[in-house]
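Technical note accompanying the year-one report. For the benefit of new consortium partners, we illustrate the data format agreed upon in the data management plan: each record pairs a sequence with a structure-token string. No post-processing was applied to the example shown here.
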Amino acid sequence: MVTLPPNRRSLLVGLAALACAPRGALADDVIDLKWRDLVPETEIPIPPSVQGLFEHDETDTLTSEQPRSSGVRTDWNGQVVSLPGFIVPIDFSGSGVTAFILVPYVGACVHVPPPPANQLVFVTTSKPYESSGMFEAVTVVGMFGTASTSTQLADISYALSADSIEPFPT
């Protein structure tokens, strides 16, 4: 389990604001986001150095530092979105995950350098999600917004208060 630093309070305040925003979106109101939608148009979504999959013995040649991001997009603040990705668990309640980092590819934040902060989403859910394990592929639907936070694994630029978390169809 990863412990969040003191600035977690500001993240939770931001998530609380998202949770208080009006809900009740119809299925037609859900915006389907892709990872490239989260970065400014002039930035490469995932740096070329981490776009592929790496064997464990190859990662020692890579830098372990998180690449800098040039900014965030606020286009979807307060909107209900759907975003697929992979789970990196942060907090648990019972046998379910209540907070996790949603990452765009397997291994992000653990086996290879983390993606830029604008390619990571901190997800919270009031109903624990029974995850099948690290890097489970899921689709998360919920209220989205910019909310900067840091964990021991990476800096994160976005937050999503999940209404639903479903395994990604295979």
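Partners are asked to follow this layout when depositing records. The chain has a mean pLDDT of 78.
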